[in-house]
Amino acid sequence: MALKKHTASSLQTSAKSSKKITKSNISSPKAESRKQVSKEPRTMEELLVQEELKLSPLTRGQAVEGIIVSVGPREILIDIAAKSEGIVTGREFDSIRDLAGGLSVGDKVTAQVVYPENDQGQIVLSLRQAGGEKRWKVLEEAKEDGSSVKVLGMEVNRGGLIVDCGGLRGFLPSSQLDSKMMGKINQMVGQNIEVWVLEVDQVSNRLIFSQRRRTTKDDIAKISSKVKIGEKYEGTVSAVLPFGIFVDLSGLEGMVHISEIAWEKVADPSHYFKVGDKVSAIALGVDEASGRVNFSVKQLLDDPWKKIGEKYSRDQQISGKITRLTPYGAFVNLEKGVDGLIHISKIPPDFSLNVGDGVDCTIESLDLEGRKISLSLVLKEKPIMYR
C-alpha cells in the first residue's frame, strides 16, 4: 500500500513538473514583444549590419534602377536603395560625357553594376547601355529630320571608313565620301567628320553614314534638269575605288560603276583609269539616294556580243585562254569582252587547268540573250564516265 501511495505521489509530482515545463515553453505576446525588443540594434554598427542583411547582394552586370542625386564634372551619384550610393566615374563617366550634360538631379535611370564594391567601398555603376539607347534614339531623329552628326574616323577597310559615334561603331562607305576626299580616305583617320545618317538599325547594330547631305526631291530635280539620259559627257577622273571610278563631267559629279567600265569582266578599276585621266561617258540616270549621276564608259564601246551569233555556232571548235577558275568551272576568254564557261562536270578529275593556259574547246551551246557560252574541252580520248 505504501508503495502505491509513493507511486501516486511521484506521478502527481511528475505531472506538476511536466505542467510547469510546458508553460515555460509557451511565449505570451508580452514575452514575444520583449524578445523582439532585445534584438533591436543598439549601435550604429549593429544597424549597418542589420540593413546589409536585408539587402540582396549586388552582382557584376546586374541592372539596377535609381535616382540621380548629384551630377558633377567627373562623376554622377545615383541612389539605388543600397547600403551606399552608386557612382559613375572614370572611364564609365567618360563614355557618356556627351550625355551627362542632359542628366539632372531627380532623373530616374537604369544602370549596370560594374563593381559591387571598389577599394573605397563604393558601388561602381555604368550608364553606357542607357547612354547607348539614347544615342540610337538621337541618331534615328537625325535621320528623320536630316540633321548632321559628328563622328571620329577610326580605321580604313576596303569598303570605306569605320567611325565612332559617341561609343557606337558605324561605317562611312567610300561611295558616300565627299568628292573632295575621294582617294584621301586615309587622311580621315583620327579626324572629326560631319556626316549624315543613311541607315540606323539598333536591332542589327547597323549604322551607315554619308559625308554628303541627304538629297532632297528639289536637289534631284535640279540635277536631273542638267542631265540628259543617253547623252555623252566629257570629264576627268576624280577618284579610283575598288567598286568603280568617280568623275567630274561638265560640272556634274558622277560615278562609273565597275560593271560599266568595260564589256569584259573588270577585276580592278585601277588597271583602266587613274586620277586625272580624261574620260568620255554616257549618262544613265540620277541616283536618288546620293544625288550622283550614274555614267557608263562601256556604252560608248562596241558590244562584242552583238556579233557573237555571226562568229560562233554550236559544235564549233575554238581556242581560248583560261582567265578564271571557280568552284563550278573554268572561264575561257574567246575574244575581248567574251568569255565561255567549261562546267566542272566537263573537266576530267585528272585534268589540270591553270589561269593563263591555252585550251582547245568545243561550243556546246550559245545563249545570246543571257550572254552565255557553254564549252567543253577537246580531248583526244574521252575518259570513262565523261558526260
Average residue-wise pLDDT: 77
Question: What's the domain count?
Answer: 4
CATH superfamily of the largest domain: Nucleic acid-binding proteins
What is the gyration radius calculated from CA atoms? 40 Å
Strand order of the largest sheet: 1-2-3-5-4
Which labels suit this protein?
20 strands, OB fold (Dihydrolipoamide Acetyltransferase, E2P), 22% helix, elongated, 8 helices, disordered N terminus, alpha+beta, five-stranded antiparallel sheet, 387 residues, 36% strand
Task: Describe the fold and architecture.
There is one protein chain. The chain is α+β, with helices and mostly antiparallel strands and 387 residues long. It has 4 domains: 64-126, Nucleic acid-binding proteins (OB fold (Dihydrolipoamide Acetyltransferase, E2P), Beta Barrel); 139-210, Beta Barrel (OB fold (Dihydrolipoamide Acetyltransferase, E2P)); 217-300, Nucleic acid-binding proteins (OB fold (Dihydrolipoamide Acetyltransferase, E2P), Beta Barrel), CATH 2.40.50; 308-377, OB fold (Dihydrolipoamide Acetyltransferase, E2P) (Beta Barrel), CATH 2.40.50.140. 22% of the residues lie in helices and 36% in strands. The chain has 8 helices and 20 strands. The protein has helices at residues 2-24, 29-38, 44-54, 90-94, 97-100, 128-145, 217-226, 308-311; strands at 63-71, 75-79, 86-89, 108-115, 123-126, 148-157, 160-165, 168-173, 192-201, 206-210, 232-241, 244-249, 252-257, 278-286, 293-296, 317-326, 329-335, 338-343, 358-367, 372-377. The strands form 4 sheets. Strands 1-2-3-5-4 form a 5-stranded mixed β-barrel. It has a 5-stranded antiparallel sheet with strand order 8-7-6-9-10, with helices on one face. The chain has a 5-stranded mixed barrel with strand order 11-12-13-15-14. Strand 17 (329-335) and strand 18 form a beta hairpin. The longest helix is centred in the N-terminal third of the chain and has 23 residues, at 2-24. The termini are far apart. 20% of the residues are buried. Mean pLDDT is 77; it is low at 1-39.
